[in-house]
Structure formats: structure tokens, C-alpha cells
Design brief:
Layout lengths: L24 H11 L8 E5 L9 H12 L3 E6 L4 H13 L4 E4 L3 H10 L2 E3 L8 H8 L3 E5 L18 E3 L4 H15 L2 H16 L7
Parallel strand pairs: 1-2, 1-4, 2-3, 4-5, 5-6
Helix pairs in contact: 1-4, 2-6, 5-7
Length: about 210
């Protein structure tokens, strides 16, 4: 995937940068409109930018899905991975047509997903994936296992960190990190601080695609 930045990306509805993060939401509402979803700019949009396989944490996802679906959020999942999980997400998109969408594996759709999403879920170590770098570049806040390189857990007291990390790959840990992210998302100033930290981490060169 070419190294576009959201400030110059020709594929997205509204370009934005660290200083104009308030405009990122226009990409979400544009995608919601295109999908025929209600325009809900304050509803968290979660993406799975790697698709899903057993190796990427598929069994854990299946355990966590009931909790995820109990929360007021929308899900974008890249149409990539194993046939088993393709069937899982095809059924989810059919059962929840206004909150689950499978993203086609092409440049325009992937960039549209990154520009629209608020957070990204990684259930296995994503340290060596360019997808994690792309999420950071676009201000998409990662939820990932502790120890993932290039991301630090958000500390609301110190106002540091660019991600929400879970200590062990267990259902309640993953769900807890998602709830923590959603509670923080209710405060736009705090959320934009985390997004800026994410984008700054790639400018500093602390995250580069392998």
C-alpha cells in the first residue's frame, strides 16, 4: 500500500492532519452515508485492518464478539484472511447490516477505512505489520497486546500513550481495553490527544513499515 498521509490522500473524502483532526470525522459520516448507515459521528467505528485468521487471534475474536456486539459501535473488517472467518463476517454483515461492513481489499477502500475508523483491533502481536503503521499515520488508535512495538498504553493522568493495551490474550482483557477506549472516546479532547500521539509516533520514525 503506497505511503499516503491523510493530509495528501486522494482517496478520502476529507483530508486532515494533526492540527485538523476534528475534520477526520467527516470521513466517517461520508462512509456511513455511502453504506446507507445512520449518520452518527459520535459512534465509535472499530476496524480490523488485518482481516482475521486463527493465527491473528480468530478464536479469541469469536469468544469476544458477543461482548463487542453488545457495545454501541460500528465494525469495519478487511475482507482478507481465512475462509472460516470470511463466513463469520459475511453472516455478521447480513445480521447487522447497519453496523458491520466488509471492506474490499483494494487501495481506495483500505484508505477509506483508515480515514473513517476511530480505533483498530489487533488480537495478536502486530509489531511487524505495516497495517499498524498505517493506523498510527491516520490517527486510528490501536487496541493491541502489551509488548506490541511502537505503541504505548494510554495513561489518562500523564496524558501519554497512543494505544489501549491488554496484558494477556483473554476475553475480559480485550473487552476491558475496548470499554476503556470507548469511555475515553466520550471526551473528544482526550481522544484527539491520543490520536496526535499516534500520528506523532510515525513522524518521529519510531514506527516504520518493515
Amino acid at each position: 500500500m503506497p505511503q499516503f498521509l491523510p493530509s495528501t490522500d486522494p482517496h478520502i473524502a476529507r483530508k486532515y492532519a494533526m492540527g485538523t483532526l476534528d475534520q477526520k470525522v467527516q470521513n466517517k459520516t461520508a462512509l456511513q452515508r455511502d453504506l446507507g448507515w445512520p449518520a452518527e459521528p459520535r459512534r465509535l467505528m472499530l476496524c480490523l485492518p488485518l482481516g482475521m485468521t486463527d493465527k491473528l487471534g480468530g478464536p479469541l475474536l469469536l469468544e469476544t464478539l458477543p461482548g463487542i456486539l453488545s457495545l454501541p459501535l460500528e465494525i469495519l473488517v478487511l475482507g482478507k484472511g481465512s475462509e472460516k472467518f470470511g463466513a463469520v463476517f459475511t453472516k455478521l454483515a447480513k445480521d447487522h447490516p447497519h453496523r458491520v461492513h466488509i471492506v474490499a481489499e483494494n487501495e481506495k477502500e483500505i484508505h477509506t477505512m483508515l480515514a473513517a475508523a476511530d480505533a483498530a483491533l489487533f488480537l495478536a502481536d502486530a509489531s511487524r505489520t505495516e497495517e499498524l503503521t498505517h493506523c498510527l499515520q491516520y490517527g486510528v488508535v490501536p487496541l493491541a497486546p502489551a509488548g506490541t512495538q511502537g505503541v504505548d498504553d494510554y495513561d489518562p493522568v500523564q496524558e501519554t500513550g497512543n494505544a489501549f493495551l491488554f496484558e494477556a490474550p483473554l476475553v475480559w482483557n480485550v473487552f476491558g481495553s475496548l470499554v476503556r477506549a470507548m469511555e475515553t472516546y466520550k471526551f473528544p479532547f482526550d481522544w484527539r490527544t491520543i490520536q496526535r500521539h499516534a500520528m506523532e509516533s510515525t513522524i518521529r520514525g519510531s514506527r516504520k513499515p518493515d
